[in-house]
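Bench notes, bay 3.
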Amino acid sequence: MAVYTHLGAEELADLIAHYDVGTLVSAKGIAEGVSNSNWLIETCGADGNGARYILTMYERRIELADLPYFLGLLDHLSAKDCPVPRTIHDREGAAFRMLDGKAVALIEFLPGISPTRPEQPQAFAVGQTLARMHAASSDFPLNRVNTMGFADNLALLEKCGADALASIHADLPAILGPAREAAAMDLSDLPQAQIHADLFPDNVLMLGNEVTGLIDFYFACTGAMALDLAVTHAAWGFDPASNEYHAGCGAAILRGYESVRPLTSAERAAMPAIAKGAALRFVASRAEDWLDTPDDALVTRKDPMQFVSRWRFYDEQGADLFA
């Protein structure tokens, strides 16, 4: 989440007036993330009761044609009692509206706090919730191609170019070789579902050890469940300060997931290579964001070298880790 576009109070009030959510009381920009503009919206109804929502304006990497998939998946999973925010539809029943040529959607606000230093019980709960989400998506009628697959990651890095990558860190261009190897990997024979594909701690809300919300589904797609597990492992299994592997959390993610849905033998065998590919996905997206983010955007850049380090860990330890 982030703020790229600045909307005035009058524009926001006019927009919220199209929904049966009361009168706009306040709107606060949310700085986390890198892809869309987001605001925490507070309203007050005729009964005097307040409510909170998340307003999202889709800025980057989001195709308008994909919004029915993204927003429909939220509603589908929410209806299946997954901790996923539902879309607030406007008075005409639309899940999103257009404002100055950009799509905007109002999303249910869920309680909870994203953990900054996840503990093992939290990691276990996230693994369980991810597996339950996969099961709940089995009858979702829409599909979406993964636009951040292994070949797409390579294309993104090559588009950045070795010189620009080196401007971020001198060692970064060396990751092009592994990215070319990963691009040849085919996961189509592994069990598929609708996957989140970006389940970092800041996309999970928790109260204690309970998952109260999975949010930011804007990289969701139809894909291998093992890839979603690998992304989550890469996101939760490393200390956010030192970037060292947190064995307890890494193992807890896997145990939590398999307590609901055990991996197949084919998935388990492929996990070391998939985990390396998952790490490269964030090397590529972070490199692009680093180079493309405007200096005046309310966004915190994220270092792609953090995931180069995680790729190296999986390259060295992955065979034992997922045995």
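Next record in the batch:
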Amino acid sequence: MPPMLKPTLSRRTLENHSLEIINLIDNELTKTQKCYIMLYYKDQLTIREIAQRCDVSPSTVSRTIRRGMTKLSHILETVQSFGS
């Protein structure tokens, strides 16, 4: 069974800041992080499906997505704190 991801960004945050997040994804994440995140969130593939498609372990996919989402979360929090 694939590892469960704990999202670091809420759905509300994702919806309210979708354009900012898309720009952050393009500018701040590695190519691998972008690929896995888009497959997971946009294309709604499972961790296992992404792992099979990319010929890596499910734990690698999970870890890569978690690191990318954590990075986005930290950046977004910083941007929001400057905007307050």
